[in-house]
Amino acid sequence: MKRKIGIGKALLYVVLVMYAIITLIPFLWALSSSFKTLEEIVSGTMSFVPKQFTLDNYKQIFVEQDLFPRWLLNSVIIAVAVTILNLLFNSMAGYALARLQFPGRKPLFLIILAVLMIPAQVTMIPNYLILKQLGWLNSYQGMIVPTMINATFIFMMRQFFINFPKELEEAAELDGLGRFGIFFRIVLPLARPALAAQAIFVFMGSWNDFMRPLIILSDPQLFTLPLGLNSFKGQYISYWNYIMAASMVFTLPVLVIYAFFNRYFIKGISFTGGK
Amino acid sequence: MKQTFTKKMWRETGSAYFLLSPALFVLLLFIIGPIVFAVFLAFHKVQLLGTTSFEFVGLDNFARIANDTRAKIALWNTLKYVAIVVPCQTILALVLAATLNAGLKGQKFFRIVYFLPTLTSSAVLTLIFMWMYNQNGFINHVLEAVGLPTYNWLGDPDVALNAIMIMNIWSTAPYFMVIYLAALQDIPDSLYEAAELDGANAWQKFWHITVPYLRPVTSFVVVMGLIGTFQLFDQSYIFSAGSGGPNNSTLTVVLLIYQYAFKTLGTMGYAAALAFALAIIILIATLIQRKLSKEESLY
Predict the structure, then answer these.
(1) How far is B295 from chain A (nearest CA, A)?
(2) Which residues cross the membrane (chain A) (predicted)?
(3) In Å, how far is A120's CA from the nearest CA of chain B?
């Protein structure tokens, strides 16, 4: 009996390790390719250890494409702005829908739920025309303003605030705080776990977004990283050592964030996925 | 008394709309407004040269879909992609979650590793896979080493879409795995203990307790999977440099909408009509799924 369990466990470990290898191989292969010379890339070897270890690719991509730092900056500005605005505005909206009584509350909530169902492709074309009319194509605001709220997270924050203990707010009201004082000084600081989960998802979504920048941005100066990477690939199609080095540079910041905040990722997914 | 009550109500309404104002602004200008605008576009021919002009064409844009060979190819590719990727990624996610949840050591380490693809941008992942799919690349070398046939993954119309499927099953399954993992924690241990007393083995426990218990989560995962897969775009675009090639084999509905809207002149209205068609297809697919999962739970 005991031995049987031992074999079962070993089998499970085999599955886990195999899948870990399958997951890691593309990343390791990309990483190792980024340190190889072009000759070795072209020769098509299978070795994970570069024959001739070189950092040239990393230096060279910044020489060949001097817009790389600019793309990085654009991505950071847009993703950080979108994240901060989403945290603030989604929480405000979620709080109003959860706690305040006002005419129009129910229809508004239903509209937000309905918006969750509309695929982005339907609004993509009109959005382009509206941004064109506003003169916001090729601009930061064209990237930031339309994405500064998110129906999913308004919904999530509403659920969070509904389960939030009312007593704290009532006590604060007795102490003479107004609605906004209560919201900004009492409620928001206590909502930190929900905000952290939301921040990570909004940031990742903005950082990795490909379609919106592809449509809105045509000036290479304003490209974000995914878009820049795609155009870089177009220019250097057989220089896989460069493309892999550039890919690694772009992936690193996200991995660092993940290393620090990985418990919030898991929490966040169960938040949005659960109910 | 009544006076103060109304005053308080007014104040509360005021604060509510103040708190909601940024959300309402974006909702109206960039979501609800555009939906109405999209309906308008779908019934017009749009010219973007110089000033934008609209010409009413009735149902022409919708009628055109039926005669558009590329639309049929795109729809067929998308359906094939959805039909294969959704079940595969769901089953893989469930199996991985159940394995991770078996209480082995190092669970946390494996979870962190598995989650890596979910974090990486679609652009980076697609480039890494294009490099591995290269004719003289990693994957063909591995296939050769174990005696399997090699493919021209990127250039052969018969396999290009499969290459994207494999990549996306690999990169999306871990996300759904985490959803399953959270749900697995909620299954009461007593259920498994009772089954053990009845002499159930590991497989029976998985099949008769875990799977049925997770049915609502599976339903959610499938719906999310359907919505996501129907909207395949980034990977196809990068794979084919925007063309949907080779020979339209990676052309998806969303890529086609993009091409008609932004790459060819005078077809923006038609693209809007296609977008509506896609929205309706997604809606129908999720409704069918809902219905099926409800019927299943009657057993």
Answers:
(1) 21
(2) 12-31, 71-96, 108-131, 143-161, 182-204, 239-261
(3) 9
- Domains of chain A, residue spans: 2-57, 65-235
How far is the C-alpha of A97 from the C-alpha of A100, rounded, in Å? Answer: 6
pLDDT digits (tens, 9 = 90+) for B146-164: 999 999 998 899 999 999 9
Q: Are residues B283 and A117, on separate chains, in Cβ contact within 8 Å?
A: yes
DSSP letters for B43-89: TEEEE-SSS-EEEE-TTHHHHHHHT-HHHHHHHHHHHHHHHHHHHHH
Q: Domain residues of chain B, as ranges?
A: 2-61, 62-296
Query: Which of the residues in chain B have pLDDT under 50?
Result: 1-2, 298-299
Contact predicate A256/B151, CB 8 Å: no
Q: Select A65-235's CATH number: 1.20.210.10, 1.10.3720.10, 2.40.10.10, 3.40.190.10.
A: 1.10.3720.10
The two structure tokens encoding residue A241 = 């050592």
Tell me the CB-side half-sphere exposure of residue A120, using CA atoms within 13 A.
19
For residue B258, which residues of chain A lie inside 8 Å, CB to CB? Answer: 211, 214-215
pLDDT digits (tens, 9 = 90+) for B104-125: 888 888 888 888 898 888 999 9
Q: Which residues of A touch B124 (CB under 8 A)?
A: 226, 229, 247, 250-251
For the domain spanning B62-296, the CATH number is: 1.10.3720.10
**CB A243 to CB B34 under 8 A?**
no
CA angle centred on A266, ends A261 and A271, rounded to 5°: 115
ipTM over 0.90: no
Closest residue to B13, CB basis, from A103, A254, A255: A103
Residue among B271, B251, B253 nearest B262 (CA): B271
| Cβ contact, residue pair A244, B178, below 8 Å | no
Name B72's bridge partners.
none
B37 to chain A nearest CA, in Å? Answer: 6
CB distance B113–A29 less than 8 Å?
no
